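Quick one from the shared queue. A colleague (R.T.) flagged Aminotransferase-like plant mobile domain-containing protein as missing a structural entry in our internal table.

Convert sequence to structure tokens.
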Amino acid sequence: GQWCTRVPLICFGTVEWNLPDRCLRQFGWEQCIPLKVPDSQRAFHGRDSRQGTRDWPTKLAKFITIWENRKSQDIVTPTHVGRMGYHDPYLDRYRQTSVRYMTPEGAADVALADGIERIKDMTTGRIELGNEDVSFIR
């Protein structure tokens, strides 16, 4: 369907991107690391369509071209059933780039879960033990 296509949605002078690669898990697909958000020419946002140019086909030609070639912009990824693994590339990136908690209690839960996972990695040989790690386990 059209929902799984990464394309600009155009309404006169406004361009907004449909970015399905940011919510694939909701639809049972394997979540990949989302691509960078494309430029949508912020100058067109909040513009009163009664003012200025009305030659939108010329101003937005690059976005119209992408839309016309939308079949080549489909997101293709395998289906995914069950939980993602702790070291799934998407979750590793998420932990590095996102705020994962909003309260001290949430921070404690995350620290505990991360600590348990780190101990598991150490005991299964996923990472080598160093002096810092031995102190962490104690």
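Residues 7 and 98 are 25 Å apart (CA to CA).
The longest strand covers residues 7-11.
Added to the table.
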